[in-house]
Amino acid sequence: MPLILTRELVKEYRMGSYTIAALRGVSLEIGTGEFVAVMGPSGSGKSTFMNLLGCLDSPTSGEYFLAGEKVSELSGDALAATRNRRIGFVFQNFNLLPRTSAVENVELPLLYGHCPAVERRRRAMARLTEVGLAERAHHHPQQLSGGQQQRVAIARALVNEPALILADEPTGALDTRTSCELMGLLQQLNRGGMAVVLVTHERDVAAFASRVVSFRDGHVVDDQRVARPADAREMLREFDLAVA
Amino acid sequence: MTWLAGIRIALRALRVNKLRSTLTMLGIIIGVAAVITMISIGSGAQARVEEQIKSLGSNLILLLPGSVTSGGVRMGAGSRNTLTEDDAYAIQREVAEVAVAAPHLRGTGQVVAGSNNWSTVFYGVSPGYFEARNWVIATGAGFEPADLTGSAKVALVGETVARNLFGDADPIGQVIRIRKVPFTVIGTLERKGQSLMGQDQDDVILMPISTARNRVLGGHTARQRTVGAVFVKVREDANMADAESEIRTLLRQRHRLQAGAEDDFTLRNLSEVLSAREESSRIMTLLLAAVASVSLLVGGIGIMNIMLVSVTERTREIGLRMAVGARARDILTQFLVEAVTLALIGGLLGIVLGVGGSYAVGHFAEWRTELNAQAILLAVSFAAAVGVFFGFYPARKASRLLPIEALRYE
Prior knowledge:
- The complex is a heterodimer.
- Chain A has 8 helices and 10 strands.
- Chain A is of the alpha/beta class.
- In chain B, a hairpin with a 2-residue loop joins β4 and β5.
- The two termini of chain B are 27 Å apart.
């Protein structure tokens, strides 16, 4: 059973008397452990697709199964629970709570998952350690660099041990080297068995994925497996050598 | 999400915007403080009236002698000595509704004890006087029947008199001279405080009515056995109006007044006067509380205003919380708790300010104020209710945001 299965997903927006179709029937399967880059020009429907995958929005028609559960017909509260347990989000602009320490930001999904406070802190600290920010746990986002903030956001996405990481242009606000580090982190998670779906419009970033799905005008126009994805760790090493 | 976590989130959000939170709370603080202070002023006034009623005695009718008409000029109540001691005893004997009818004779004069002297009022009274006026003997003994029949030179002194003549020493057994007549003090009267008119009711000496008549006042009071006033206490279960009309009938009969003639006495129902006063002070309390409540309401609108701003400002935060798993209910709780926390903290600070304010009014304006636990509880629960009521709309607005739109909000 695939982790993600969509059948003829359609999403239409009503703007006054116009109806704009953002997705015009997308059928896609993504397996557990895949690293998929979703590409396409703006307006191609890739963001809409991501919102549907993330259970942030409901399709106009079509079906969406996530880990065997028919998500496309769940109510608001059930969708919230699904987001909480199965999906981790990484956003372009990090979306950390301001004036709230890193560890408390990481704890946030656990707070809504009814996890006791002690357990919450323990798990959040463990995740922060994984992303290498244990010693920054009590810093506020504004005291952290962009790359560090994005790592906090990844720790937050991971804290509930989701099956799927959805990353929406995660490198959009980062420089090349930091982007490379971040992609290395995502690749490492992917190797651990977590599915990663990444929206990007940069070929360099998509090159790290094992599968590239291209959108245009609300359709999937291209779906290719990458035989040998770029290895972020290797690239980072080369990068450092070049600088030296 | 637990309530405790909700309160922590709310406190953090309030801390982030300290100035704004404080200003918002100020409305509630002032509102609660105003309610508490106003109610304490009101119940202070009420308590004072109640005390006066108690000191006067309940179900009391005051009988005063009638007026003299001289050449068309009427001289006012008490200008003619028409009431006699026997009238009082007749009322007690013949009117079933009356518990006790006690006459008194009033005089003023200089009182001397050792090297001290003091000008005061003295009353010659019958034994029933103490019951009628709810007056208790604090120390020593009251009058014996023999004191009355024998016009004994014994006196009871009020607190003010005792203090002025004897200081801290025990007055009992001491000799005082009232208008040069030596008396033995046999007891002291319990403190009664101010009268309705603001007179010191403890600046007084009581003696048997026969002693006052025969040994101190003399003159026509002795010959005609007239009295200055009669206090009539009506039985608890009796109807005041019935008692009044029976007393009036009896007195008219005894004074042989023609059917059309005016009363030669004045009959005053003191309890009625007082309960009207009590009622008006109760209404004043309510009115003060109502006015103060308006400021609490205004404070509530302030909370709503700020919460609406806060929801708009934090739209992205709401979107993020929803993305990581917050249900609409969690968001509603968060903002509601925030509003109620604002109101409750404001309420608690308001209590402090209100209690302080009521002491300040009591101290500086010298008004009697009375703190009322119920009023404090009421004000704070009202504040919390204001928080819930005015917090609900912004909180619901926040909870109804769509996660995707909230996340994209700039």
